[in-house]
Amino acid sequence: MGVDGIGARVARKEDRRFLTGKGRYTDDMSVPGMKHAVFVRSPHAHATIVGIEATEAKAMPGVIDVLDGKQLLADGIGNLICGWMIHSKDGSAMKMGAWRPLADKTVRYVGDAVAIVVADSVAEARDAAEAVVVDYDFLPVVTDPVQALADGQPQLHPEAPNNLIFDWELGDAGAVDRALAAAAHVTELKIFNNRLAPNPMEPRATLGIYDAGDEHYTCYTTSQNPHLARLVMSAFYNVAPENKLRVIAPDVGGGFGSKIYIYPEEIVCLWASKRTGVPVKWTCDRTEAFLTDAHGRDHVSTVKMAFDAGNRITALKVDTISNLGAYMSLFSSCVPTYLYATLLSGQYDIPAIHANVRTVYTNTVPVDAYRGAGRPEATYLLERTMETAARELGISPAELRRTNFIRSFPHQTPVIMNYDAGDYEASLDAAMAASDWNGFAARKAEAEQRGMKRGIGMSCYIEACGLAPSAAVGSLGAGVGLWESAEVKVNMVGTIEVMTGSHSHGQGHETTFAQLVADRLGLPIDSINIVHGDTDKVQMGMGTYGSRSGAVGMSALAKALDKVEAKAKKIAAHLMEADESDILIEDGALKVAGTDKSVPWFQMALAAYTAHNLPPGLEPGLKESAFYDPANFTFPAGCYICEVEVDPETGRTKVVQFVAADDFGNIINPMIVEGQVHGGLAQGIGQALLEGVTYDDSGQLLTASYLDYAMPRADDVPSFKVSTSNTPCPNNPLGIKGCGEAGAIGSPPALINAITDAIGNNQLTMPATAEKVWAAAHAAN
């Protein structure tokens, strides 16, 4: 490891521009003639559009035009789609209702867009939007996913009777039922996983530009996946031909999954630019984000876990209702299926598992992937059940988990996944030592003397990252492959440009990707530039989500570097009249092993481009690319232990200690990994204690601002104790597993387990607000 290489705690290169206000976000973009957009949105959760009157609005100062859904439809712009096909257990395809970028007949949630106003300024566009008159006929509303399935409830889409999108299963139902019947003990629970709003620091924004001369479109957007945006807008939404559409995602201020998808606004702003002849920019305000950004989670589940007389799990039975909102978002169908049910084995050797998942339409914002996407829901269900079982069986929750750990790898679970490597006991031991697990009783007694209730909770999580290989996900219904690409260009003076299909929106790619190159080529990190987020500069890529940038994106880079190294050694060997097998690359030079002969890296690069003295038949230049499609998912895992104090008089919970022991495989930059874990833990604590999207019975969003939607603050989280162990992933060249989602996956059950331990009542749902905790604590007494 060099000072800049793999394993070094290198400060993030990109932070200088972020901390000095020099970041370039979509809302910073300005082009000549640019105008501003405001969307007219439905204030009703379910209604038929009778008519839209915009004459007065069009005549207002600064207004360029007001456009509606009928015009959009007439111009041939297509419906938004879900890109992952799921079939019900009877073989029928999922029931995908029509989602128009601008509703032309029916609105199905508060915030559904019906028109766009384009004006000289945001203020003028907003004034005109308020002058647009939309005549609605109100329709009945349903927001509860369980109620939505019942007979006689309002129907959102004619394609989906009883609002059922699909009824899907995984596993062996017969084997599970037999094991439950023969069990020495069965633990049963009803589990609610609360709906969350993603709340990235930067709200969504888009700038659509149409060049009539070239018939070319450019879209600046806050996207985690610009190449996918270009693909779907050209191939499915009929916005523009792919070769006439450039998508640029500049600096992006957080995403957490909510910026993977294509939203109506990108489509409509590009279309409006062509219709009006001016560039059109829209920037979301925070309330608009609550109303329209894809939400996360929202599961209602029942679970049964069977044990034999030796406390070993013999079966797991899960029934889940998943609320997908008013429409199917781009990846919504895979979240409660292949990203959820396939992880229900957790870290445990469970012989038989069966999961049944029903997805439902309701008059709420569409639901899709949010940090962890299915894995947090699976972990919460499993780890709450394990903790409850330990209490019912009267044994230590640590020992119950230890009894059931998988210890032999590779391990084939009953729900598709084949775990390649892990040491779950090592993470458990590390977490217990760091938390002083054995000293908890003394701390509990001391807290009681102060009138406080102290509790401790544990969670052992596993997740599947990388979301590959492409052939496997294709067979499961994915509409795209999940490989990644990289291109390495060595310039004439030896500096490096890396073009990656991964996209950074806070993960530190400009640093970690450069560290890999620095480690391989012995070059200073400042001589390496990472390019991403522009479909005209980067060959096709699949973006960033699912903790895939290291395991998949950097593996593609490693393969491209293999080719660069091989060619560089050929050139250097020719220049030094040596055998290329004797050439070493280190300290910015190519050296002949066992001699003092060397060629500086820049001199080799110059020779590659001057081409005066190259080996016979070797092409000039030094630029190589690679695509990488992994052989398996990666499986990060860990153990989290949370300790809380609850004030029985107020119900207020204070997290007094949080320990995270993770196994992420090989780590490129420990400092960045720790930051990712800290951020994930804060989000998980937010879900467990504070956050929750709430609708009333009429479909009005009651949590549409930070006055009503509680986000974690600095005083809500402790100083985390984090550590890592390492069982390298055997299925990618770097041994990386991924770290970006772990904190948000493992923390909620650890915290709820701790609170329920403190108050002596297992009946507690997220978010565990002070009111809920107070009521549960007094019910227990």
What does this structure look like?
It is a single chain. The protein has 781 residues and is of the alpha+beta class. Helix content is 29%, strand content 22%. It is built from 20 helices and 28 strands. The chain has a seven-stranded mixed beta sheet. Strand 26 (637-646) and strand 27 (653-663) form a beta hairpin. Helix 10 runs parallel beside helix 19 (742-759) and helix 18 packs across helix 19 (742-759). The chain is globular. The mean pLDDT is 97.
Give start-end ranges of low-pLDDT stretches: none
Q: For the largest sheet, list the strands in their spatial order.
A: 3-5-1-12-9-10-11
Q: Roughly what fraction of the amino acids lie in strands?
A: 15-25%
Integer-rounded radius of gyration: 27 Å
Overall morphology: globular
Main pleated sheet: 7 strands, mixed
Distance separating the two termini: 58 Å
What does the average pLDDT come to? 97
Helix content: 25-40%
Helix-strand category:
alpha+beta
DSSP strand count: 28
Count of helical segments?
A: 20
